[in-house]
Automatic annotation (TrEMBL):
SUPFAM superfamilies: Aminopeptidase/glucanase lid domain, Zn-dependent exopeptidases. It comes from the Bacteria. Keywords: Aminopeptidase, Hydrolase, Metal-binding, Protease. The keyword Hydrolase applies. It comes from Jeotgalibacillus terrae. The keyword Protease applies. This is M42 family metallopeptidase. Pfam families: Peptidase_M42. Belongs to the peptidase M42 family.
Length: 355
């Protein structure tokens, strides 16, 4: 999955501007499924039919990443910007970014004063993103326009995935793991199902605009009839020493089986099935109660007449930053549990709220 993850995180696709990711995902999954389409919003919906009768299952992950959008080009050639998704103002200063123009990609830097001026400034001040700017090396406004920048140009962190430490750690640092890591798991699962005899129908939904309110999933969910759904996303761990951390979720401790977040109370039958399968297959997992996050699972659970929904969470440090960190063992555990869930489905499978 490392190669899949490298390819996915290199793509430029902030919320509402996922075209390169949608195209790449569509073309990649096309030979793996029976049907694939891209809907009007940009969601990629891929259907794979099993050899036997069984339930209709949806598995979903979002393609968009947090980013920015150009709001104004100053006469100096510096760029004012707005956020796309939940970026933390404390993390923005002096970070490399990448702009996608109609004529190609540009590298930029979110500017800050030199350290030599810090003694003349309020060292404790966190400037709002609207006070900040992106420097693309343009000499003036006309130069910036010549480089292809316009109001509405989308911006992401500059791609740079690599091992954290070295290859012995099994951990990676980069941008966009939220949720290209989930997309990699979906694609890897579809690849491994090629040689498997499974029941029912599996629909893989790669959604857009999750970071701005689960918008893609709300649209996609209305297009599918499903008996059960599993959403994949990253989750913020709490295993670092800050005073707000409670060590309830840890990197390297296995996939997270969602119990509750602000968008979803996991369906008990789905949650219990995931726990049983993890125990039966000796897949490492941790139970997740984290009201500070939401996923496409929330939108899926409310679709049509209601879809029994669970979530598998990929543990992550430093979420929504250019240096997100994940552990490959957690990623593999997530894939193994998702695959086990698919292969365990049968014509008799049911997910009633009351037995």
């Amino acid at each position: 999955m490392q190669q899949l993850l490298e390819q996915l995180t290199a793509l430029h696709g902030p919320s509402g501007h996922e075209q390169p990711v949608s195209k790449w995902v569509r073309d990649t999954v096309k030979p793996l499924v029976d049907e694939v389409k891209v809907d009007a919003l940009g969601n990629v919906i891929a259907v794979k039919k099993g050899a036997r009768q069984g339930p209709a299952m949806v598995m979903t992950a979002h393609m968009d990443e947090v980013g920015f959008i150009v709001k104004k080009i100053e006469e100096s050639g510096l760029l004012r910007f707005e956020k796309l998704g939940g970026n933390d103002d404390r993390l923005l200063l002096t970070q490399k970014v990448q702009l996608r123009t109609k004529s190609g990609l540009l590298t930029g830097v979110i500017g800050s004063i030199s350290a030599h001026y810090a003694k003349f400034d309020d060292a404790g001040k966190v400037r709002n993103h609207r006070q900040l700017y992106i420097d693309i090396g343009a000499k003036n406004k006309e130069h910036a326009i010549e480089l292809g920048v316009e109001v509405g140009t989308p911006v992401t962190w500059k791609p740079d995935m690599e091992f954290l430490g070295n290859e012995t750690t099994g951990r990676f640092v980069g941008k966009g793991f939220d949720d290209r890591a989930g997309c990699a798991v979906l694609i890897q699962t579809l690849q491994e199902l090629q040689d498997e005899d499974f029941a029912g129908t599996v629909t893989a939904v790669f959604t857009v605009q999750e970071e701005v309110g689960l918008r893609g999933a709300q649209v996609a969910a209305r297009q599918v009839e499903a008996d059960v759904a599993i959403a994949l996303d990253t989750t913020a761990v709490s295993d670092t020493p800050e005073e707000t951390m409670d060590a309830s979720l840890a990197l390297g401790a296995g996939t997270g089986i969602k119990v509750l977040d602000f968008s979803l109370i996991s369906h008990p039958a789905v949650k219990e099935k995931l726990i049983r399968l993890a125990n039966d297959n000796k897949i490492t997992y941790q139970l997740e109660v984290f009201p500070g996050i939401g996923t496409d699972g929330g939108a899926m659970s409310l679709a049509n007449h209601g879809i029994p929904t669970g979530v598998l969470s990929i543990p992550s440090r430093y979420a929504h930053s250019p240096v997100e960190v994940i552990d490959m063992e957690d990623l593999v555990a997530t894939k193994e549990l998702l695959k086990a869930f698919v292969l365990d489905l049968s014509e008799k499978s049911g997910f009633d709220f009351i037995n």
